Amino acid sequence: MRLTNRSLLPSVASAALLLLAAAPPSPAADGSDDAPDAAPLLGEGRHSYRWDGAWPRLDGDLGSTHGGIAFDADGNVYLQTDTARAVMVFSPAGELLRTFGEEWGAGLHGIAVDAEAGREFLWLCHTGLHAVIRATLDGEETLRIGPPDEAGVYDRPDAFRPTGVCVAPDGDLYVADGYGLGYVHRFDREGRWKATIGGPGAEPGRFRTPHGIGVDRRGDEPTLLVADRENGRLQRFSLDGRHLAVIGEGELRRPCAVAQRGDFLVVPDLAGRVTILGRDDRVVVHLGDQPDPALRAKHAVPRERWRAGEFLSPHGAAWDRHGNLFVVDWNASGRVTRLEREW
After folding, report:
1. What is the 3-class SS of the chain, one letter each residue?
2. Distance CA 213, CA 337 (A)
3. How many CB atoms sit inside 10 A of residue 37's CB?
4. For the chain: N or C, fewer Cβ within 10 A?
5. Cβ-contact 169, 215 below 8 angstroms
6. Handedness of CA 286, 287, 290, 295 (dihedral sign)
7. How far apart are CA 197 and CA 173, in angstroms?
8. Rounded CA gap, 277 and 160, in Å?
9. Are 301 and 272 within 8 A, CB to CB?
């Protein structure tokens, strides 16, 4: 396993780059003809959300969005892009605060915020660097984890292409090698390998593109959830790697990630919609289902074909602390939608 400690690398955020105009974008910010006061309402009941086409407050495109989204304790939003502005940090209102990660280049894919000894850190997967990076909230790299040689499954470093990362309550790190060999690896907080789960296959306990990963804290004991994208399902494991359940077969298309809030899970589905599951792991509601199959799971859909109320290729999603839902579409121009909680 290749570990590199880096505690003194300079942050590359540039103050001149950070603050863009705070004025909200035009009413057609999401590419539709809908004015903000006519933004569609998605869902129903406890899962009713108003489509916010004016977030973020940014002049121009984000650039390709092919990663995840996360929040710090202050509610600031950390968005991964497949550009030189590898991480973009926004205020809850959508104003750009800073960017960092130019030295990493394109390839960030998967993000988690972790707190240790009262200080928050980011965990970032990078498919091009074949590594998981720990960084401060300002972008200073403090640890890099390469392919786990101890697992005995990698005969070359570039076969490790991690796409998802999460942190368990005990501080252990779980990494989904979604674009690599199809395993999930467990590390301690300092990057030492502990175990490997799964491997390629369609039977329960194995994966076809384990794309995203999360910890489910709803039960008596926390469990691990893996978005097994090309098998069209989630899978549940104990934290020590025992397979427990298959979730969502026949109800999910191509699940990319999973996040929890309260009794509910949100699953961004690359094939054009976002799904919310209840405590029983059954579908509560599908949101923003793309009616045109030709626009689902497509990266190059131009802005003029975007429509408010309709997702394209949901790739990442998470609730903020107020229950608003943020969804990242896999899109060449970059698309993030804030769904404002209406209940």
Report:
1. CCEEECCCCCCCCCHHHHCCCCCCCCCCCCCCCCCHHHCCEEEECCEEEEEECCCCECCCCCCCECCCEEECCCCCEEEECCCCCCEEEECCCCEEEEEECCCCCCCEEEEEEEEECCEEEEEEEECCCCEEEEEECCCCEEEEECCCHHHCCCCCHHHCCCCEEEECCCCCEEEECCCCCCEEEEECCCCCEEEEEECECCCCCCECCEEEEEEECCCCCCEEEEEEHHHCEEEEEECCCCEEEEECCCCCCCECCCEEECCEEEEEECCCEEEEECCCCCEEEEECCCCCHHHCCCCCCCHHHCECCECCCEEEEEECCCCCEEEEECECCCEEEEEEECC
2. 21
3. 6
4. C
5. yes
6. negative
7. 13
8. 31
9. no
Q: In this predicted model, what pLDDT tens digit does every residue of 8-52 receive, in sequence order?
A: 344 434 333 333 333 334 344 454 444 444 699 999 999 999 999
What tens digit of pLDDT does each residue of 221-255 get?
Answer: 999 999 999 999 999 999 999 999 999 999 999 99
